[in-house]
Write a structure and sequence with these properties.
There is one protein chain. By secondary structure, the chain is of the alpha/beta class. Helix content is 40%, strand content 18%. It is built from four helices and four strands. It has a four-stranded parallel β-sheet with strand order 1-2-3-4, sandwiched between helices. The longest helix is centred in the C-terminal third of the chain and has 12 residues.
């Protein structure tokens, strides 16, 4: 979170399973912050259940990618969310 606050990136590629704070919580903080709410969040996770993907979107994620993933897939989705392609994720 410190890096996001100080650097204010256009996009954060975020894993859900992090050591100190969960990815859902980080996503929610980013999207509820007046200063950061325009930051795009792309969740990348080994959690493949539809309920996990839905929760990610409910917390404000702009996209949800499941592992394993291809680098080209991540690049394409990041490009799409940067250029206003809206929310998306795996079709499951």
């Amino acid at each position: 979170m410190e890096a996001v606050i100080s650097q204010r990136p256009d996009v954060v590629v975020l894993d859900l399973m992090l050591p100190r704070m969960g990815g859902y919580e980080i996503c929610k903080i980013i999207k509820s912050s007046e200063e950061l709410r325009h930051t795009r969040v792309v969740i990348v996770s080994a959690r493949t259940r539809a309920a996990d993907q839905i929760r990610g979107m409910q917390e404000g994620a702009d996209a949800y990618i499941t592992k394993p993933f291809r680098n080209q897939e991540v690049r394409a989705i990041v490009a799409r969310v940067i250029h206003g392609g809206g929310r998306g994720g795996d079709p499951e």
